[in-house]
Amino acid sequence: MSEPSILLTNDDGIESVGFRALYDALSEFADVTAVAPATDQSAVGRKMSTDAVVAEHELGYALEGTPADCTVAGLEALCPDVDMVVSGINKGANIGAYVLGRSGTVSAAVEAAFFDVPAIALSLYVPAGGDLPWHEKATDPRDFREATNAASHLVKHAEPAGVFEQCDYLNVNAPVSGPDGGPADMQVTVPSELYDMTAEFENGTVKLHDRVWERMETGDIPDPDGTDRRAVVEGRVSVSPLTAPHTTHRHEALDALAETYLE
């Protein structure tokens, strides 16, 4: 059996610790070509460019562009014959239905789905609290081991098992480590529907605030078992099988409105 070929991208940038940890882990059994943003492109969603300058990099290619740019550029021009697109490892979880459209990490996987190429998005849940802010944690490649272990398992086995016959991409979120430092279990999940954005208008400025992360820090989350957020907060690897195109349904009320449009 030949080794799989992988287009590896992310949104934290090609020099990020999580990206290198994933590149090294997948390179042990796969032919990996990096096509990743040259700089941090977090939370850009599926923003696209019309031109993206490309520079050769020791891992592949660095683009002055977005994660979605990288997927299109890779699949169309730089490494068009890959078996799979893998995006990550993002430092910070990408969990909850409302986050999926904002995440550059997830958007790179979504873009691959429109090429009919299987894709996996990987993120690391870094809990807040303690002496350090969350963004100053997870600075060592070993901190990403739960995510790299999950990535290796899924890249090796998901497609042969027929997983991508029933979904377009997998959104994977892993804890920094399992309970008591042991290996984390894996759970198939659905995106949480919890939404707690607030906005305050004062002195000509609107301040937007996502209260979900504060609630996670205190454990105040109503998500039931089986959701992505509940899984990672409790120390499990969350795997959500998702589809990319928006679903559509016929509605009698809308049909009636369309029929009366010119009346």
UniProtKB/TrEMBL annotation:
<dbReference type="GO" id="GO:0046872">
    <property type="term" value="F:metal ion binding"/>
</dbReference>
<keyword id="KW-0963">Cytoplasm</keyword>
<dbReference type="Pfam" id="PF01975">
    <property type="entry name" value="SurE"/>
</dbReference>
<comment type="function">
    <text>Nucleotidase that shows phosphatase activity on nucleoside 5'-monophosphates.</text>
</comment>
<feature type="domain" description="Survival protein SurE-like phosphatase/nucleotidase">
    <location>
        <begin position="6"/>
        <end position="182"/>
    </location>
</feature>
<keyword id="KW-0547">Nucleotide-binding</keyword>
<feature type="binding site">
    <location>
        <position position="42"/>
    </location>
    <ligand>
        <name>a divalent metal cation</name>
    </ligand>
</feature>
<keyword id="KW-0378">Hydrolase</keyword>
<dbReference type="GO" id="GO:0005737">
    <property type="term" value="C:cytoplasm"/>
</dbReference>
<dbReference type="InterPro" id="IPR030048">
    <property type="entry name" value="SurE"/>
</dbReference>
<feature type="binding site">
    <location>
        <position position="12"/>
    </location>
    <ligand>
        <name>a divalent metal cation</name>
    </ligand>
</feature>
<dbReference type="InterPro" id="IPR036523">
    <property type="entry name" value="SurE-like_sf"/>
</dbReference>
<feature type="binding site">
    <location>
        <position position="90"/>
    </location>
    <ligand>
        <name>a divalent metal cation</name>
    </ligand>
</feature>
<dbReference type="GO" id="GO:0008253">
    <property type="term" value="F:5'-nucleotidase activity"/>
</dbReference>
<comment type="similarity">
    <text>Belongs to the SurE nucleotidase family.</text>
</comment>
<keyword id="KW-0479">Metal-binding</keyword>
<dbReference type="GO" id="GO:0000166">
    <property type="term" value="F:nucleotide binding"/>
</dbReference>
<feature type="binding site">
    <location>
        <position position="11"/>
    </location>
    <ligand>
        <name>a divalent metal cation</name>
    </ligand>
</feature>
<dbReference type="InterPro" id="IPR002828">
    <property type="entry name" value="SurE-like_Pase/nucleotidase"/>
</dbReference>
<protein>
    <recommendedName>
        <fullName>5'-nucleotidase SurE</fullName>
        <ecNumber>3.1.3.5</ecNumber>
    </recommendedName>
</protein>
